[in-house]
Amino acid sequence: MADLLLTALGMGWPVLLFLVCLLGYFWFGIPEPEKKRRAVFKTFIGIIAAVMAFIAIANYKVNFFGESRLLPVSLVMITALAFMMGLYFSNVSALLKIGGFMFLVAAGLSGYGNWLPQVEGGFPPPEVKLQFDAMTKEQLADEGEKIIFGGIGQSKVQGAIGKGQCPLCHGFNEGFLSERAPNLFGIPERSKQRLEDPRYHKGKPGDRDTVEKESFAGAGTAQTVQEYISESHACPSCYVVEGFGLKGSNDKESQMPKIHKPPISLTLGELAAVDTWLYVREGKEPPSYDEIVKAYEKFIPEAERPKPQEDKPAGAGGALMADGSEPVAEIFAKAQCVTCHTIPGIPGAAGTIGPKLVEKTNAPARLRDPAYKGTAKSVREYITESVIAPSAFVVKGFPDNTMPKVFGQKLSAGALNKIVDYLSQLEEGKAPPKI
Question: Helices 71-88 and 33-63: crossing angle, nearest 10°?
Fold first, then answer.
């Protein structure tokens, strides 16, 4: 406001000075009291009108090229002064009132248009393709951190999740107790111990008791640290760390998806970047890009290898897992709900880490549970609360803090609404809705 007044005074001081001098002349130069009163009053009205006019002009000058939504105020001020002048200058009253009405209409139209969301035109930004094989180890590590956490420097930010979605299950900081999957701090060194674990059956995949013996027929087992890391990404059920198997599988099946397949679908270059970060962040010399890719090629058949031209920069730390445009089954898959929950009607959703999601049956009973301390009053509200604040009510038999608390930030309102719509229709013993 101060800027407007200074600008207005800067533009209009000669006119205002003239009007003030004219006011003084009328006061001292007209002897008849009645004429003096009319002349002084109209001059005073003129001064007020001039001030309003110059403030209106200054508002345009100061804000026209900015993002201010106050521009229509100028038109409203001009409208007001036109009607005000029309009251006291009867000889041109009609003209002033017509002009004022036109400015009023312009102010309304301008205000409506100015308050609409502003869209900046122009060409879309050029599509960037990453050349992982041409990067230094530091550049690769930076891309790996983006893929895991969504941005450089996000590894220490609670709830930061990137395209790889690894933090949904894994811990990455020393001393962090992971409940759903092993803590990956120190994994380059710990991989040596895994290779020598009798349950791993190094070199003898046929002796394994897991649901998958090899990543594919003839792949064999890992022989080096990098091959072990690659195999654990490409075939998580080939070896399951004790205590982290799918519930009820006796550690013979992993709850982790194959991350080179949908919905995560990391390319070989992205996988190499992720692994490079695992080494570099601990101050260890990583294998070369070619060595890491070769290790993955041992466990991922050529037909399943994502194409290099698909490599694009990873999303930012605030990037959504799902924006709501996807089918509901894809939303469940992208958010990894299928890994932890059994969801009738959703392909692959047979997890046992979390409760079965038949919420038309579950939600009313849980809302009546004396242990329920949440704020929901309906089935839809309960489901929404369970997604964005899972600790509000913890189902008996399932530990608290198992489900991540980031879905309120990682799912759009549209995606969350699709999840709630679907789950609210699921009833125990009845067929799920068609998707």
Answer: 170
What is the H or E stretch that residue 101 is in?
helix 93-115
What does DSSP assign to residue 184? -
Give the domain extent around 383.
Answer: 328-423
Residues 55, 182 within the same domain: no
The verdict on 300 and 175 lying in the same domain is yes
Residues 98 and 242 reside in one and the same domain: no
How does pLDDT run across 163-184, given as a tens digit for each residue?
A: 888 888 888 888 777 767 899 9
- Nearest-angstrom CA–CA distance, 372 and 383: 13
Distance of alpha carbon 169 from alpha carbon 351, whole angstroms: 14
Cα–Cα distance measured from residue 74 to residue 106, given in angstroms and rounded to the nearest whole number: 10
Element (H, E) at 271: helix 268-280
- The pLDDT assigned to 3 comes to 47
Distance between CA atoms of 223 and 78, rounded to whole angstroms? 82
392 has a pLDDT exceeding 80: yes
Q: What does the pLDDT read at residue 22?
A: 60
Angle, CA 162 vertex, CA 194 and CA 242 arms, to 5°: 25
pLDDT at 315 over 70: no
CB 260 within 8 A of CB 141: no
Alpha carbon distance 208, 213 (integer Å):
6
- Residue 361 has a pLDDT of 96
